[in-house]
Automatic annotation (TrEMBL):
Mg(2+) 2 binds at D52, D53, D131, D233. Catalyzes two subsequent steps in gluconeogenesis: the aldol condensation of dihydroxyacetone phosphate (DHAP) and glyceraldehyde-3-phosphate (GA3P) to fructose-1,6-bisphosphate (FBP), and the dephosphorylation of FBP to fructose-6-phosphate (F6P). The active site is at D11 (proton acceptor), Y228 (proton donor/acceptor), K231 (schiff-base intermediate with dhap). Consists of a single catalytic domain, but remodels its active-site architecture via a large structural change to exhibit dual activities. It catalyses: beta-D-fructose 1,6-bisphosphate = D-glyceraldehyde 3-phosphate + dihydroxyacetone phosphate; beta-D-fructose 1,6-bisphosphate + H2O = beta-D-fructose 6-phosphate + phosphate. Homooctamer; dimer of tetramers. The gene is fbp. Dihydroxyacetone phosphate binds at H18, K132, R265, D286. SUPFAM superfamilies: Sulfolobus fructose-1,6-bisphosphatase-like. This is Fructose-1,6-bisphosphate aldolase/phosphatase. Pfam families: FBPase_3.
Amino acid sequence: MKTTISVIKADIGSLAGHHVVHPDTMAAANKVLAEAKKNGIIIDYYITNVGDDMELIMTHNRGELDTKVHETAWDAFKEATKVAKDLGLYAAGQDLLSDTFSGNLKGMGPGIAEMEIEERPAEPIAIFMADKTEPGAFNYPQYKMFADPFNTAGLVIDPTMHEGYKFEILDVYAGESVTLNAPEEIYDILALIGTPSQYVIRRVYRKADNIIASVTSIERLNLLAGKYVGKDDPVMIVRVQHGFPALGEVLEAFSFPYLVPGWMRGSHYGPLMPVSQRDARATRFDGPPRLIGLGFNIKNGRLVGPSDLFDDPAFDETRRLAEQIADYMRRHGPFMPHRLEPTEMEYTTLPLIQQKLKARFKKEAGVVEAKKSIYEKQVEGGD
Ligand code: 13P
Ligand code: 13P
Ligand code: MG
Ligand code: MG
Ligand code: MG
Ligand code: MG
């Protein structure tokens, strides 16, 4: 029988700002999941948090987008929200964009990463969960894991990986996806995924047999809600070992604290800092963006583990560099490229300011008016 791993997350409120989930809200969610386990809806579960995001890790035999499993997650978030409201937590129910559940959680606010697998005799997986960033933040490490031999030795020396992987890339604005092959099409892949705000790697498959290797949540809350309701704080499930990258190759992809959008008010670039569960609190300038990783083995749907993957001095230098980058970026204050470009900002007073100052702008003789960027002209097919 196939096993499905469902990682479903939502921010239902935080103690003191946006930095941490309150344990009482986790206890409320735990009650709902324990009941679902007793009733046979799910086989096993584990609840954790990264910053202000509550993470439900569940296993079952019901496949992806299952109504009962999604309803269980929804109920858990609703019950947790009740407690958050009782306690007067900040932004209680933040990511629950709708009041009523209908069928599954798609488009309702929570982030969803699910994969249905045929369990291998040993099925090791790693689950990554981030706070203060968005789904495209997993583009860079997925490329490193599955396409870069300088990261993943197995791409060169393991015959079961040597053929490469397929990347399913979603255009979150157009709602269309394309599947591209690595290594043959890596330049095309990079041309797209280097713009992570628009192109998000949703799934990776092993090319030799089309077996799923990784899946990420792709929900972008502001695109769903049409306004800022918080960052999308993504999750990712990665299968490791035996035809997939080794756990150490997967973790190596996070050894460089690369810049991601998010951080304060969802509107600043900052380094993604891998931390232990203990340090999964977004404090300085509401960050820096945090990442946790948990390692499990799955056996007949049972979640064996977890191991707290970044609770390791081997990542101390990554964290130290992240802190240095955080200092460096912060010193730019409101200047780009610390602050996001106007089209990606989650908050902006810019149109109001432009409006207010409109009458005070004076025409300058001899300065040509440039109407469009080179990119916009090329998209329109101009010269
Ligand atoms: P062990 O000998 O410790 O099992 O290592 C196997 C391996 O391939 C590590 O990447
Ligand atoms: P969250 O998406 O984690 O709630 O972030 C909100 C925010 O604006 C932090 O400054
Ligand atoms: Mg929040
Ligand atoms: Mg969050
Ligand atoms: Mg958020
Ligand atoms: Mg061994």
